[in-house]
């Protein structure tokens, strides 16, 4: 069996996974790009196959969620939209591949599932590490408190670098 090439870099897919309503989801426009179709075509197929997308597979953002999302990602194509986007869970993203019925969608859905799995594993390993650190902290006395605090700081994910593009003058 031939090995399929990555259609879109894994990092791009992972950046598209957002935390909405306490769960990991991807927006319709991001999935459309990954699956090689227009957002309009993707949403048409969802409407035609509505019975395949229960509420735990997809939902439409509320106006309030949509406004908040637009304010966070002001440079994306969200600014052009009039209606709130649909958000798809991992299961909804896989179901999309079956209703789009193209080789690109099937191969891309494999990448999407792998990105969700990687994210889940990272979160689980971080929880396990935090639990083990709590055990060690309880076992040893306060002389190691600074060490434990430093390790906890290292476990916090870094904030995205929000540097502006272009040249800057060196400050004197």
In short, what is this structure?
Helix content is 55%, strand content 8%. By secondary structure, it is α+β, with helices and mostly antiparallel strands.
Give a verbal description of the structure.
This protein is α+β, with helices and mostly antiparallel strands and 172 residues long. It has a domain at 10-121. Helix content is 55%, strand content 8%. It has helices spanning 10-16, 28-35, 39-48, 63-72, 90-100, 103-139, 145-155; strands at 18-20, 23-27, 58-60, 86-88. The chain has a four-stranded antiparallel beta sheet with strand order 1-2-4-3. A hairpin with a 2-residue loop joins β1 (18-20) and β2 (23-27). α2 crosses α3. It is elongated and about 60 Å long. Mean pLDDT is 75; it is low at 1-6.
Spell out the key features of this protein.
single chain; 172 residues; alpha+beta; 4-stranded antiparallel beta sheet; 4 strands
Give the helices and strands, then pairings.
Elements: H1 10-16, E1 18-20, E2 23-27, H2 28-35, H3 39-48, E3 58-60, H4 63-72, E4 86-88, H5 90-100, H6 103-139, H7 145-155
Antiparallel strand pairs: 1-2, 2-4, 3-4
């Amino acid at each position: 069996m031939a090995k399929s090439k990555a259609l879109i870099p894994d990092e791009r897919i992972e950046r598209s996974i957002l935390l909405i309503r306490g769960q990991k989801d991807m927006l319709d426009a991001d999935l459309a790009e990954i699956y090689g179709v227009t957002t309009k075509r993707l949403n048409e197929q969802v409407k035609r196959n509505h019975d395949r997308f229960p509420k735990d597979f997809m939902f439409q953002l509320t106006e309030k969620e949509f406004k908040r999302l637009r304010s966070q990602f002001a440079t994306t194509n969200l600014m052009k939209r009039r209606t709130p986007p649909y958000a798809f869970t991992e299961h909804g993203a896989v179901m999309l591949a079956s209703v789009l019925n193209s080789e690109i969608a099937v191969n891309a859905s494999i990448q999407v599932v792998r990105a969700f799995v990687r994210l889940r594993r990272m979160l689980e390993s971080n929880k396990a590490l935090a639990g083990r650190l709590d055990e060690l902290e309880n076992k040893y006395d306060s002389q190691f408190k600074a060490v434990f605090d430093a390790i906890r700081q290292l476990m916090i994910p870094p904030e995205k670098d929000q540097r502006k593009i272009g040249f800057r003058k060196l400050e004197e």
